[in-house]
Design goal:
Length: 295
Amino acid sequence: MIFDKNQSAFPSEFHREVWWWAVGIVPPDVSLTGEVRAMCAPDMLEGCFQWHAYFCALCEDMYQNAEAYAPASARQYRDILEKIAADGQIVSDYISKDRLSGGGDAVIWGAAEWNAYRNRINKSKQYADRGVTPDACLNALARTGLVCETGARVAAFRHTRYPKIFNAMQTFERSPRVRETPARHHFAHCEFRQLFKSYSAGYDELMRRACDESLYIARVIHEYCVSRKIQRYIHFGIIKYKYRGVRILDYNLYGNEYPTLRINIGPYRINPFKRDLDDIINRIAEKKREIDNAS
């Protein structure tokens, strides 16, 4: 399934959330740079490719079978996957309890630790209010190959379709400054440039999943700012323009609305360009209305 970044209508909010996740996944030929590959052992590199394939397959199944994943959000599924990878112990060539499969990585938790996490989630407001439980989420994730085996002493997690993913996931979860914004988003997007050192996306990467309309708006704004010697910079994933030490405007991509580009223009009292910028935005909006009416 190919997710179209220009899509604007969705069957449900869950579909839109999955779409926003899917269009943000970075292709391995972009994120697995020569520098990253040189630092990866063969199993780690294979784990990265499998991780990317897994998230693409998971998003496709979520979008096509949304009822099987309800009522949890896509974010809650990612949170559980992150937690499994971050806090367990990796075991290579794990043999399943039925001894019918092996050869891949597994994440092993102590049963007491896993049950404590389950109980904490079950009591949390954001899960309880939606009627979401970790067990129900794991049952849904089993559709694409994630297996959870629980016993008296341990809880083991493995993947039947992508057996090498967990070592790569855990390395990522323990990478430098991964708990900081925007590094937290890199897990969902398979941004492997974060594997071994802190990585902040540049302009092209931040705008990679913007729809064509948003890219057009951003280009018009940038051309105006360049003409007025207004400098662009990026801070925590937000694209900002500053003139003589004053932020004139900023914009970012958001998945909860369409178009996905949200623009904030500074107030008149500190922004000598606000009237011009307002006019630019109005002209862009008028042009869009003309195009929509013509179609």
